[in-house]
Task: structure prediction
Amino acid sequence: MGMLAKNETQEGSDNTNSDVPALFLSEGRTGEQYQIIAIKNCNRLQRLTDLGIIPGAHLTIVQRLASSFVVTVKDCDIAISPEITSAILVVPWKSNG
Result:
């Protein structure tokens, strides 16, 4: 599998509910859970992949700060810039628990 170029799009091929409107993570609400469906035009794609921020992954917005968003991915809190959250396309997610 080849690496994506710097500004390419990475999209998931999972079976998300297509009836639910997608939004950028930057538009999400604190405390809500989301499933990543695509990452659009992000020059930090490899770093996001290393952190587990990939299509199909689930995350929760923990806190919105002036200079970053704090999200939980796979039980780890990660701070990411608003610029990057504007490249992550998500749909709301409700766990089965």
Notes: Residues 10-92 form a domain with the SH3 type barrels. fold (CATH 2.30.30.90). The chain has a mean pLDDT of 83. The beta strands are 10-11, 23-24, 33-39, 58-64, 69-73, 76-80, 88-92. Residues 22 and 91 are 5 Å apart (CA to CA).
